[in-house]
Amino acid sequence: MYRIKYLSNIFRVGEYTLIKKVDHIGIAVRSLENALPFYTEVLKLPLLGIEEVVSEKVKVAFLKAGETKLELLEPTSEESSIAKFIEKRGEGIHHVALGVESIEDRIKEIKAHGIRMIQDQPKQGAGGAMVAFMHPKSTAGILYELCEKKGMTQQNG
Ligand code: ZN
Asked: How far apart are CA 40 and CA 47, in angstroms?
């Protein structure tokens, strides 16, 4: 396991960082139709697109919030992990997605620190991104998604 050494190991700008940015924040909602007006009309965030990810049994909407995006996730089936999440904890923040390059190598690096991954191999996510989740038991309760977008045409993740 890793240990953070304070002061002796302070990060300096320009040094290697495993992640590029917070790519998006995933938010579980019961209904996109009901949730979207708050984002598009009150916050006036541009809607980048709505897409169904059949394998995950979710419909997702991406909103642009500056450098970061918000990903609203609506379950399309009761078996969807998002449906189970809402049932247990209600609507709200579901995951934080960290943008990376060379996702396979990043997974290996993270695992080398003893962090458990839900997926050892990246899988297809929304917007053509490759994604893999870290186990929240390894990250003090936060479901982190690693995501990598290949090519410039994909805006979502
Ligand atoms: Zn996501």
From this structure: 7
- Token pair listed for 115: 């962090």
Distances (CA, A) of 155 to 62, 110, 148: 9, 25, 11
Distance 98 CA to ligand 1 centre (A): 9
Q: Say which amino acid occupies 101.
A: E
Which is more confidently placed, 140 or 153? 140
Ligand 1 centroid distance, CA of 25 (Å): 7
Exposure letters 56-71 (e unless 16+ CB within 10 A, then b): bbbbbbbbeeeeebbb
CB neighbour list of residue 56: distance below 8 Å, 6 or more residues apart: 80, 81, 82, 125
For residue 151, the one-letter residue type is G
Q: Which domains does the chain have, with CATH numbers?
A: 4-148 (3.10.180.10)
**DSSP category for residue 5:** -
Residues in the chain: 157
pTM for the full model?
0.86
CA of 24 to the centre of ligand 1 (A): 6
